[in-house]
Amino acid sequence: MPAQQKKIIFCIAGVLSFACALGTAAAIGTQLWVKGTILCKTGALLVNATGQELEKFIGKIQYGLFYGERVRQCGLGGRPFQFSFFPDLLKIIPASIHVSVILFCTVLIVFALVGAGFFMFNAFGSPYETLHGPVGLYLWSFYQYGIWLGCTRHGLAAGMMSISPSVSGSCGCLIMILFSSEVKIHHLSEKIANFKEGSFTFKTHSEHFANSFWIILVCSLVHFLNALLIRFAGFEFPFSKSKDSGPITGAADLMY
Length: 256
Description:
Elements: H1 3-28, E1 34-40, H2 41-47, E2 58-63, E3 67-73, E4 78-84, H3 95-124, H4 133-151, H5 155-185, H6 188-193, E5 202-209, H7 211-232
Antiparallel strand pairs: 1-2, 1-5, 2-3, 3-4
Helix pairs in contact: 1-3, 1-7, 3-5, 4-5, 5-7
């Protein structure tokens, strides 16, 4: 592929990767991961509410990874409450899963930024250069480490550029799987609604994933698209074997 087309592909992939990093960072800070409604089961059973009367006992809830808000409805009007996961809800939620989601979000942001940096470096930089002396020896060691990562003859810069989208996309999938299990299997909304509720019992009436959750899905798909763009530009996927790869005996192939 001509160098100009490669530069265009790398620029597009770099911009997309940077946009995913910003989108993920914005999603982490919002409370728009889950939206739903909560039924005050105790109050509805006391008055045997049905039909339109039941709506007086249905409140709302929405939350993210760090904080959220719910409106408590028990027949006497809505009462809004703010809550925070840290440290208030740590004892009632699956803390290991929740912390893992946050950690994978952080990894997603880091690798998205790393990928964007290497995309731009390969588009506008000059990684093909010969170095001599101790500096060349040290960088050559990093280059051999890039070969070990499965980067074939392209070296560390192209190798990290190839690995970052795959890692980011995988992290995005893990985030969605873990958070979905936390919400659906562990009934996170009900646990939040019943937190410090002595005489009333609340049950999830309806819930759905909100914008921030789907932003993670879009970012994951974009990272997998970046991986395809790298392959389209002529680079091998990580841990793939090149047919024409031979022994490399110098630092002239540094970075590429």
